[in-house]
Amino acid sequence: MKCLLLIDLQNGFCPGGNLGVAGGDEVIPVANRLMAEGGYELIVASQDWHPADHGSFASNHPGMKPFEMGELGGKPQMLWPDHCVEYTDDAALHPGLDQSKIAYVQRKGTNRLVDSYSAFRDNDRTAHTGLADFLNRHGVTQLDIGGLATDYCVQASAIDAVEMLPGVRVRYVEDLSRGIDPATIAAAEKAMAAAGVKTVTSDEILREARGV
């Protein structure tokens, strides 16, 4: 079972969003083409879905500003602008994304007391989202991952997939992803490779699907 996991392709992470990633909207056509022509038997997506009082928001820490390091749950926490607040347009999947092909959307970041970069579990690594169980029930043997942002949610999801889905081949789709900072993107790609995640491009995937 070949599965594509789209990470947080939401308005909030695209240009014009509350936490926009440069070029984030450029991956939407790549996602649509992979969904249409990549030979996937299952397509799933993750969606940041925060309460307005989420502890990762700088606005909920008096005197702190976005992109400063604060604390959440007794651990260091990057403080973000308010983003992807549940039921807002900022949290919606990008309107250009062909959602008709997405079988399941896993929401994350719903607990105000802990952040959730990974689509599989919270950052404290104790509470699981249930996505791993869903993929196991469907017999997934290959998982291709890409989305926003490479150096945070994509990296965390790919590395967790290796650990939580034993025996599943996990690949990071480079041109389906955009990140925040070149240095942390490079570090994320190195960390994913060290965890056993292979890097591929959409062109490679499409050639595989065509048997070329």
From TrEMBL:
BP terms from Gene Ontology: pyridine nucleotide biosynthetic process
GO MF term list: metal ion binding; nicotinamidase activity
Keyword tags: Hydrolase, Metal-binding, Pyridine nucleotide biosynthesis
Record-linked CDD domains: nicotinamidase (cd01011)
Top-level EC class: hydrolase
Enzyme Commission number: 3.5.1.19
Domain (Isochorismatase-like) ranges: 3-203
Domain of life of the native organism: Bacteria
Pathway entry: Cofactor biosynthesis; nicotinate biosynthesis; nicotinate from nicotinamide: step 1/1
Coiled coil (UniProt feature): none
Family of the protein in this entry: Belongs to the isochorismatase family.
NCBIfam families in UniProt: PRK11609.1 (NF008623)
Protein name: Nicotinamidase
Species for this entry: Mycoplana dimorpha
